[in-house]
Amino acid sequence: MFDRILVAVDGSPKSEKTIAVALDLARRYGSAVTVVHVREHERYEGSDVDLGPPIPAEDLVNDALAEFSQAGIDARGEIRRVSSGSTPEQIVEVAGQSRADLIIMGSRGMTEWKSLLLGGVATKVVHQAECPILLVR
Q1: Nearest 5°: phi and psi at 31?
Q2: Within 13 Å of residue 8, how many CA atoms lie on the same side as its CB?
Q3: Of 25, 38, 104, 109, which alpha carbon lies 20 to 30 A from 79's?
Q4: All domains in the chain, ordered by first residue
Q5: Long-range CB contacts (within 8 A, 24+) of 122-128
Q6: Does residue 101 contact residue 137 with C-beta atoms inside 8 Å?
């Protein structure tokens, strides 16, 4: 049913819960997993300003991959660095490229206060993705 699962992580508490859910489903269905982290940045006075969490992107993805590896689940990671506001499109793009049958992500992430005004990453992914989405609270 779910041969390939995409898990979006952003370092938020909701994002941490997605790993446990993805581990459970990947075990049940024998799924391969892609862990994606989209790191937003802005150009400001000639340099890039990282808008992501204080955790380095590589650490965030590698920590998640270690959990899947310990469980014997085939997993790979991907990091995308994009301009502010492009996160939903990037998640959907990675899902398409990895031929994901399911996207698992937190219902609210690091930009929770922004999501109240702008519609939120999860809402945009739900509207753009071609596969089912599991939002974790």
Answers
A1: -80, 150
A2: 30
A3: 25
A4: 4-136 (3.40.50.620)
A5: 124/88, 124/89, 125/8, 125/88, 125/91, 125/92, 128/88, 128/89, 128/92
A6: no
Q: What is the pTM of this model?
A: 0.85
Contact status, residue 72 vs residue 32, Cβ threshold 8 Å: no
User: How far is it, in rounded angstroms, from Cα 89 to Cα 125?
Assistant: 7
Nearest to 56, CA basis, from 39, 77, 78: 39
Token pair, residue 17, equals: 């819960």
pLDDT in tens, 78-120: 999 888 788 999 999 999 999 999 999 988 654 544 444 444 8
Cα R_g (the chain), whole angstroms: 14
Least confident segment among 47-51, 58-62, 88-92, 123-127: 47-51
